[in-house]
């Protein structure tokens, strides 16, 4: 075997590091084509990627001394293809095929065939068989040419984790025998949406990264844009592809304008439009035109791009065509009925048809548990309320939003907005003040007070600590409770209800000094005067005595408890659960461990890596002993990925500066915090509709 | 990051092969999402000079043709090395001559 000719002469010149930098550049530019060309020969993405890697090693050995070849991409492809043929010959099964490839390999493929190969490669690396995180890693690796280390840095995980994701993905694809072919027509839409999802996810990971500390992350936007633009050439007949490209181009056009000098976020309507990148905007418009030319019913990406186009077309914020945007959000909400889309729709309607119309949509979202801790809901409501002239409520919503925001800069911004609103001091005590006074009682034991404290903190967050106690109506309290604990176990629900009843009774009693009047609506008829309400409130309080619901807990009912036992998930449900491929390894491990150990959720989440004894399949944590069986044991090495200390289950992201957890709850290597009970419960709920405690065996 | 590659004019005239090869190269880079804009520039042009309050407008051609720019390409790449690699490929197609690569800042 002879290598292809290299450019004349050994190097008088380039230093080895320069050669490395050049190789890196070549790989990033050519990776997709090299791996795709190999796939054509070996039909196995894992093998193709290894062969490409081998060719790279050959280049690293030869180029520093022999000089970089004239066409480095072609050189790498040729070397890798020869190794592929050798590999096939060694396997001795496809001799004729190998000979045929050996003859063909030096002929450059037709450009059209080459393009199709790259498209096939993208469909494979984004195969729905793979969990999202594996799709993302594999696509960036084989199509984007990024190293595992680069991907790890961009997604704030360790390199072994990425390497393992890529390896698992390759193995899954090989075992499933996924063919190197374009999807069949009836499968195309689903397969394409899987590709688009990966590209947009990569883009958002880069776009939503906090500014500054790591330049790799904004570079992800470029990688996603490249993938999208490439895809648009490969599948030009798909409107949604152009829609996604248009959306990314226009969003990327604002990247310079969307943060202020101190890194604080700048809202769209306050951005300096002169800093929007007109070149990218025009590219976005062009992509949008291509999508429109294809026609058909607009999909979610085309609709989102159309919204982005509306903003980009407005010379000033005041010129924005909000009616059009509201209509587009309406169409999007029919395709993607998520609360976030609805919230955006509320903003657009508020701008197009006035704050009251916007509030109507936004208020409906208050009952959605998914937005319970989402700061933008009170943020948006604050805006709308302020414009509707309801200043006191607006201020409370901004305060509530500031308390919920995770990003310090954003929280400060919301607090400033609240402070800018001057309203007369509310008469009487606020909910926050009353809670504090209630909890300062000395006639309750510490455990009860702690439990009450949790309930009242959540209540305060839901209705706003600054709400005057006199405005706390039974309706408000009922809604807050349903959103917060409506889907909790009856026993949990009853605990919180009892706490609120106790608070309510205390507040309406002599010690509570609650200003009686306006808000006793739950007990008095709607037509009753304030005076009648007082009488009714007092009468009820007096008659029922201790533990009475009081004036604002009137809408709350206890729920029957099912003998204190929670229904456990049954065999078939569990089998299906263990087989789910769309779930991240962290969740699969957690669920298995909870089931196999029968331990409490908090005990399991509290485990640290150094507590584990992998050989004996047990751990001794702060909350006692936890042991597991084969299912967990199989998953743990992948989850650990070489980690030796810190929390076993980690959160997805590094904590923001305002929410830094204690050192014991942080991974010393990646800086990520311990996975919270709330988040783990939420993810399980999303995936199964059940609660984590139902994983305990009967 | 973005780089602007500018190319100095040369004496050689382009033949059909070169046009075909350049066409293919441009198509490939556009498809890969790397090439944002490209174009050729007229020789000469108009020179606008300001000294104090005075602004002078002069029509070309100008004598110091070496400094002139004959064409440009605006590329979006991950690194300087990628920009250099692309320019190498460009130079290999167009033959003897000179190109300059500069990073573009802003907007």
TrEMBL record, chain A:
Ranges for domain Core-binding (CB): 429-508
Domain of life from the UniProt record: Bacteria
GO terms of biological process kind: DNA-templated transcription initiation; response to stress
Classification via SUPFAM superfamilies: DNA breaking-rejoining enzymes, Sigma2 domain of RNA polymerase sigma factors, Sigma3 and sigma4 domains of RNA polymerase sigma factors
Keyword field contains Transcription: yes
GO molecular function: DNA binding; sigma factor activity
Alphabetically ordered keywords of this record: DNA-binding, Sigma factor, Transcription, Transcription regulation
Biased composition regions of type Basic and acidic residues, renumbered to the chain: 96-112, 662-671
Family listed: Belongs to the sigma-70 factor family. ECF subfamily.
Name assigned to this protein: RNA polymerase sigma factor
Organism whose genome encodes this protein: Actinoplanes auranticolor
UniProtKB/TrEMBL annotation, chain B:
UniProt family annotation: Belongs to the YciI family.
Domain YCII-related: 1-90
One Pfam family of this chain: YCII
The protein's name: Transcriptional regulator
Source organism of the structure: Actinoplanes auranticolor
Domain of life, per lineage: Bacteria
Cited PANTHER family: BLL0086 PROTEIN, BLL7171 PROTEIN-RELATED
